[in-house]
Specification:
By secondary structure, this protein is mainly alpha-helical. The protein is built from 13 helices and no strands. It is globular. It catalyses: 3'-dephospho-CoA + ATP = 2'-(5''-triphospho-alpha-D-ribosyl)-3'-dephospho-CoA + adenine.
Length: 280
């Protein structure tokens, strides 16, 4: 494993920590939790697995194949098990390995590719079959099949459209003068408003999914979380989702993917500007 692989994993974990610390998130764990340290520990427990995924992709020399896809799947499943043991079986970041692992692997596979184009590279990996994948469907994949939702696999095979939507929403909110937490919350709500979250479908069916989607749209249509009406709508949505036990984790994981790309882009811009600054 190279230092470059470690850096990619560290950036991904930083993105996951930024998502975890974002408060208040409707229905989701955040800094208001009594044991917020466990949330941070859960995110950091992914570092070795994400580093191993980046190293595997880098060894492939730019050519994704079935062997690499199988190796990434095996590392991802091992990482999920390690995370579960580290958190006494909790599911604080269950499912985050899939989008972040693919995006980290794409960055290692194509190190010269612009960060905003990494979802397309990740799509190439997601499209490959994993012959060693468990044949027993997960709750999310079962819900996707039952309700005809894209699910996590469909999102990845489409090139992470909601990660790209989150990036656009994030940058639009910043350009409009939003503070960083507000911009990130608006990006999260943008994902929630349209994502067919199979976790919600599994827990509460189409009604639960619509409740989260419609509530997210209400906040955005009220002016976003930075406005008085939008802030009130966010609070009301948070109360409803928590009362109903609805946890839109899929949206949070995709926001973390967008933040990963955003951090990489900022670092790329800083590196590109460094020679100019030195010359000046």
């Amino acid at each position: 494993m190279s230092r470059a692989d470690e850096v990619l994993a560290e950036v991904a974990v930083d993105a996951l920590l930024a998502e975890a610390e974002l408060t208040p998130k409707p229905g989701l764990p955040d800094a208001r939790e009594a044991d917020f340290g466990a949330l941070r520990w859960s995110a950091r427990s992914l570092t070795p697995g994400l580093t191993a995924m980046a190293a595997a992709a880098r060894r492939a020399g730019g050519e994704p194949g079935r062997g690499l896809r199988r190796e990434l799947g095996a590392i991802g499943r091992c990482t999920e098990r390690t995370m579960a043991r580290a958190n006494a079986g909790s599911a604080l970041h269950h499912g985050a390995v899939w989008p972040l692992g693919l995006l980290v692997s794409a960055a290692a596979l194509a190190p010269t590719l612009a960060p905003d184009r990494l979802p397309t590279e990740a799509r190439r990996l997601a499209a490959l079959p994993d012959g060693a994948a468990p044949r027993i469907p997960s709750p999310g994949s079962a819900a996707a099949s039952r309700y005809g939702a894209a699910g996590a696999r469909g999102e990845a095979r489409a090139g992470f459209p909601h990660v790209r939507r989150a990036l656009t929403a994030l940058r639009t909110a910043r350009a409009a003068g939003a503070r960083e937490p507000e911009a990130r919350l608006d990006a999260l709500l943008t994902v929630m408003s349209t994502l067919q979250d199979t976790g919600l479908l599994h827990a509460a069916g189409p009604h639960g999914l619509r409740e989260a989607q419609n509530g997210a749209r209400e906040v955005l249509e009220a002016g976003g979380v930075g406005s008085a009406r939008g802030g009130a709508a966010l609070h009301a949505l948070d109360v409803r989702l928590r009362a109903d036990g609805l946890r839109p984790r899929g949206s949070a994981h995709l926001l973390a993917g967008a933040l990963f790309l955003d951090i990489l882009r900022d670092r790329s811009v800083a590196r590109a500007a460094r020679p100019t600054a030195l010359a000046a």
